């Protein structure tokens, strides 16, 4: 075990305050495409019974009017968050058209013309129109098709008592806020170094429908059949170069060595014009994007993990981070598991908590551009060839086998799992870690392998596999109605969200052009 991890664990185990780790907090954000009975993207508006996508606390949309996003409250018990996520699904199904369902896989259903994918609509307020304008810009920059990809985001934070304890044990000269932010950035750097392991363990998108790629696109995939493309050893094509790729982003370097460097890098990208983007125009003469900079706003920078803080109305996320520090982190590299009702389960969440603590407690030196490139190369190697027994990754400029390196990481994560089990008086974290360790020794146990195995067994293309899983989920949730209290609770949330949207629309005092100009000047 590395010395710093060993020392940190030893100190923590000896302090009675370590029981606070029983209160690790998390939240889930799950995306799912709304599709019709033929497997095409639904063209209907966001269901009225789901309230306002602008202001609803749990049910909204992402890029498209058909791309649902479900958000749980913050919980400390994974079972509670999964139960709530299941309730969101059940309520949503009660409001969908009878011929519509939610797509269970990360890679989308049948995709027709790019321009036929409907942008999400958020009402007539300035903030609502801004959200749609941002999405229009994404469509011009990257194409709308790639925006139909879905995933699960895992929001993670440690209790205040832990930070007070860890601050004391570290004998840090920083104030508590500075210390927490510095440590979260250390976690982020380590996460980026080792997140290829999560793609291997949880990637579930080794194949896709041929309709997803353009005819002239150099995708590097093989034909599985006349309808599907795949890569035999792929894990998560969702995280590959089929997604947010452009010359502008490929040349973008954002440092995670400190909050100062991270914020400066994002702001520079938001303020730096990118001439090719200035050529975008809409057929009706309306604005095509928020601005023609490398990034329109912070969220356009795609990364596997983000430092986060809840913002005030009208506040830029990067300014909130600078002023108040990191509040939680958002893991963004998780595929939907099409074999699970809500795309994720409790053992996965328990392992993620262990893995993230491992990233926090291990030494996390600063990284440079060379390591930045090494990290990206490792991720793409695992995306395309993660289950290849011959795959070698780069580790400090030297070749390392994926399995050897993964086994080494898992042994260290197991020490974290044992600590958490001691606190919880259970064996669930260690059991979850053992299950993931088994995948390292046997790639056939990974979700990506199981997807291809199921396609082979059924002798069906990717689309038909995903459609059957989606139909099964639809039956499950339609036959699992909420009780009267649960239905009433969601109806109230929808009604309140509509009132909040109307209030925002009524309170606008600035024309939209001036509103966008003010944002760009901030």
Question: Could you describe the 3D structure shown?
Answer:
- The chain is of the alpha+beta class and 522 residues long.
- The protein has a single domain (3-521), classed as Creatine Kinase, Chain A, domain 2 (2-Layer Sandwich), CATH 3.30.590.
- It has 17 helices and 12 strands.
- Strands 1, 2, 3, 4, 5, 9 and 10 form a 7-stranded antiparallel beta sheet that branches. A 3-stranded antiparallel beta sheet has the order 6-8-7, with no helix packed on it. The chain has a two-stranded antiparallel sheet with strand order 11-12.
- Helix 10 (346-361) packs across helix 12 (402-424) and helix 12 packs antiparallel against helix 13.
- The longest helix has 24 residues, at 484-507.
Can you tag this structure with a few keywords?
alpha+beta; 46% helix; single chain; Creatine Kinase, Chain A, domain 2
Number of domains: 1
CATH topology: Creatine Kinase, Chain A, domain 2
Largest sheet: 7 strands, antiparallel
Helix content: 40-55%
How many β-strand stretches?
A: 12
Number of helices in the DSSP assignment: 17
Termini separation comes to 46 Å
Instruction: Assign the CATH class.
Output: Alpha Beta
Q: What fraction of the residues are assigned to beta strands by DSSP?
A: 5-15%
Please trace the helix and strand order, writing H or E for each element: HEEEHEHEHHHEEEHHEHEHHEEHHHHHH
Judged by helices, strands and strand pairing, the structural class is: alpha+beta
**CATH architectural arrangement:** 2-Layer Sandwich
The low-confidence runs, each spanning 5 or more residues with pLDDT under 50, are: none
Rg estimate, integer Å? 23 Å
**Basic shape:** globular
Taking all residues together, what is the mean pLDDT? 95
């Amino acid at each position: 075990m590395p010395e710093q991890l060993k020392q940190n664990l030893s100190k923590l185990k000896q302090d009675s305050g370590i029981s606070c780790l029983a209160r690790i907090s998390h939240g889930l954000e799950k995306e799912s495409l709304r599709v019709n009975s033929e497997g095409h993207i639904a063209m209907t508006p966001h269901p009225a019974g789901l309230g306002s996508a602008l202001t609803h606390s749990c049910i909204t949309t992402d890029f498209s009017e058909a791309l649902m996003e479900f958000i749980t409250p913050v919980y400390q018990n994974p079972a509670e968050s999964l139960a709530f996520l299941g309730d969101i699904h059940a309520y949503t199904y009660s409001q969908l058209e009878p011929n519509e369902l939610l797509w269970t896989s990360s890679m989308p259903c049948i995709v027709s013309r790019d321009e036929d994918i409907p942008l999400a609509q958020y009402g007539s307020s300035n903030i609502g129109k801004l959200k749609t304008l941002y999405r229009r810009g994404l469509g011009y920059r990257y194409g709308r098709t790639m925006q139909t990809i879905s995933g699960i985001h895992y929001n993670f934070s440690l209790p205040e008592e832990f930070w007070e304890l860890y601050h004391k044990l570290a004998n840090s000269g920083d104030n508590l806020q500075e210390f927490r932010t510095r440590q979260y950035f250390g976690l982020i750097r380590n996460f980026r170094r080792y997140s290829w392991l999560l793609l291997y363990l949880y990637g579930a998108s080794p194949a896709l429908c041929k309709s997803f790629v353009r005819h002239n696109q150099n995708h590097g995939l093989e034909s599985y059949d006349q309808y599907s493309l795949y890569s035999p050893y792929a894990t998560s094509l969702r995280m590959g170069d089929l997604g947010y790729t452009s010359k502008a982003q490929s040349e973008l370097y954002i440092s995670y060595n400190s909050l100062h460097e991270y914020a400066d890098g994002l702001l520079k990208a938001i303020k730096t014009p990118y001439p090719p983007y200035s050529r975008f125009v809409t057929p009706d003469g309306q604005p095509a994007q928020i601005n023609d900079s490398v990034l329109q706003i912070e969220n356009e920078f795609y990364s596997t993990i983000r430092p986060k803080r809840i913002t005030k109305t009208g506040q830029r996320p990067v300014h909130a981070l600078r002023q108040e520090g990191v509040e939680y982190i958002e893991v963004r590299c998780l595929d939907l598991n099409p074999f699970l009702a809500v795309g994720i389960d409790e053992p996965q969440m328990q392992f993620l908590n262990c893995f993230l603590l491992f990233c926090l407690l291990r030494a996390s030196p600063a990284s440079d551009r060379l390591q930045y490139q090494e990290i990206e190369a490792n991720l793409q190697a695992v995306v395309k060839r993660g289950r290849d027994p011959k795959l070698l990754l780069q580790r400090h400029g030297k070749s390392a086998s994926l399995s050897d390196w993964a086994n080494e990481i898992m042994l260290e994560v197991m020490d974290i799992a044992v600590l958490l089990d001691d606190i919880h008086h259970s064996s669930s974290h260690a059991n979850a870690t053992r299950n993931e360790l088994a995948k390292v020794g046997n790639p056939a146990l990974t979700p990506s392998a199981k997807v291809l195995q199921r396609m082979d067994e059924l002798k069906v293309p990717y689309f038909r596999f995903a459609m059957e899983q989606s139909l099964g989920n639809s039956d499950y949730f339609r036959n699992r109605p909420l009780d009267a209290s649960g239905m009433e609770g969601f109806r109230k949330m929808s009604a309140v969200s509509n009132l909040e949207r109307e209030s925002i629309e009524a309170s606008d005092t600035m024309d939209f052009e001036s509103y966008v100009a003010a944002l760009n000047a901030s």
